[in-house]
């Protein structure tokens, strides 16, 4: 029996060994792509690949003079054609399995993302957890040519900066390929992507001495959100409107608020947790959206003279912050209505709760969305005052 079992297993094991390395590739044959930019130039697709030089990234092996990344560019009638034509310039095959950032040029975004995104969902070498961005005011390729001071790999710094900004300040949103496609195809909800801009002369950003300065002349910066309908870019949201979007979609991890003090001056509050619920209900046969938010904050900075031991002063600050959050939400909704895109998913809430109404209203939802009544229920609670009930500034005023 044992001999018979061994006889059966031996061919299977041999098959695994023989076929296990069918796709094996040597590292010295590959160019590790960490960033991809896509632009439309003269009716052609232009792709830009940011490629890592492993020898320059490793501190012990770095020559100190060469750039840690190399950028390759090529044009073609299709994305795949442009990508393959890069082989005429690169000694190695492009390997995008470590892709961190996809930067989409504004012209491509306005025409539509679907054709570009199709290859990223179809090609097994492309991972799906990279972030997608829209380049505002500059070609996507120029974004990927800018060297960054903290992280030697600019694509990594773009990725990390976006995550940090979302968690600590909340004017942007981390959107991966999977999330983007899900938002584009979901009933009653449209998409947003974070916008990135190039500050300073583009040519200067490619020079090593730019990041050797204490304050680089050229750098990259996030600038709110870009608003889509289906797969097409419609316009932009500023920082305040983008924060309002994140409040409504329950995507606030931490941020700060300036609260007006009674008698003048401001207090700065540090948000420690926030929860938003959005519900749809019918009123007189028409949908109404209710946005409920509960926020907990700590006193972070005092720039006014008030007694924090008095409950009425705490309530004054809480109301000031609640009013600020409501204003940001209203501004964000107003901007989305101007653009005609339900990025908040109000339509999705109506579809889920009132499918019969949605069936007859979905074709005109943009018009309905522009007039949709919104009700707000925002409550802010100050939990901690810090190590001192009152600022020493109070004593200076005595």
Description:
- The structure is a single chain.
- By secondary structure, the protein is α/β, with parallel strands linked by helices.
- The protein folds into two domains: 29-237, no CATH class; 247-397, 2-Layer Sandwich (GMP Synthetase, Chain A, domain 3), CATH 3.30.300.
- The protein contains 15 helices and 13 strands.
- The strands form two sheets. Strands 1, 2, 3, 4, 5, 6, 7, 8 and 9 form a nine-stranded mixed β-sheet that branches. A four-stranded mixed β-sheet has the order 10-11-12-13.
- Helix 10 crosses helix 11 (311-339) and helix 12 (346-353) crosses helix 13.
- The longest helix is centred in the last third of the chain and has 29 residues, at 311-339.
Distance between the termini: 97 Å
Q: N-to-C SSE series? A: HEEHEHEEHHEHHHEHEEHEEEHHHHEH
What structural class is derived from the secondary structure elements? alpha/beta
Ranges where pLDDT stays below 50 over 5 or more residues in a row are none
Provide the domain count. Answer: 2
Q: State the shape.
A: flat
């Amino acid at each position: 029996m044992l001999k018979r079992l061994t006889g059966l297993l031996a061919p299977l094991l041999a098959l695994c060994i023989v076929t296990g390395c069918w796709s094996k590739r040597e590292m010295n044959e590959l160019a590790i792509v960490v960033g991809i930019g896509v632009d439309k130039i003269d009716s052609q697709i232009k792709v830009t690949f940011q490629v890592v030089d492993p020898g320059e990234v490793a501190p012990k092996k770095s020559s100190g003079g060469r750039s840690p990344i190399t950028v390759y560019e090529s044009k073609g009638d299709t994305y795949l054609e442009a990508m393959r034509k890069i082989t005429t310039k690169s000694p190695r095959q492009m390997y995008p399995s470590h892709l961190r950032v996809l930067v989409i040029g504004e012209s491509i975004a306005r025409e539509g993302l679907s054709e570009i995104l199709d290859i990223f969902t179809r090609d097994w070498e492309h991972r799906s957890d990279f972030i997608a961005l829209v380049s505002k005011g500059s070609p996507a390729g120029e974004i990927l040519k800018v060297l960054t001071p903290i992280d030697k790999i600019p694509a990594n710094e773009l990725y990390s900066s976006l995550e940090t900004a979302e968690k600590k300040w909340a004017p942007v949103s981390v959107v991966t390929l999977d999330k983007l496609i899900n938002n584009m195809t979901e009933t009653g909800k449209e998409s947003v992507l974070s916008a990135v801009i190039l500050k300073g002369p583009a040519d200067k950003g490619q020079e090593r001495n730019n990041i050797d300065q204490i304050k680089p002349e050229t750098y990259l910066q996030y600038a709110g959100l870009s608003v889509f309908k289906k797969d097409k870019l419609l316009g932009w949201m500023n920082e305040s409107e983008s924060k309002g979007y994140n409040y409504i979609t329950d995507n606030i991890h931490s941020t700060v608020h300036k609260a007006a003090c009674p008698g003048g001056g401001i207090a700065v509050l540090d948000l420690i947790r926030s929860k938003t619920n959005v519900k749809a209900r019918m009123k007189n046969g028409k949908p109404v959206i209710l946005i409920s938010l509960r926020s907990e904050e700590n006193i972070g900075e005092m720039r006014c003279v008030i007694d924090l031991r008095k409950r009425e002063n705490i309530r004054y600050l809480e109301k000031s912050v609640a009013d600020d959050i409501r204003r940001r939400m209203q501004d964000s909704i107003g901007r989305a209505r101007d653009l005609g895109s339900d990025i908040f998913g109000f339509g999705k809430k109506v579809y889920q709760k009132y499918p019969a109404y949605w069936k007859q209203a979905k074709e005109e939802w943009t018009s309905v969305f522009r007039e949709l009544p919104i009700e707000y229920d925002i409550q802010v609670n100050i939990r901690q005052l810090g190590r001192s009930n009152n600022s020493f500034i109070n004593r200076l005023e005595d």
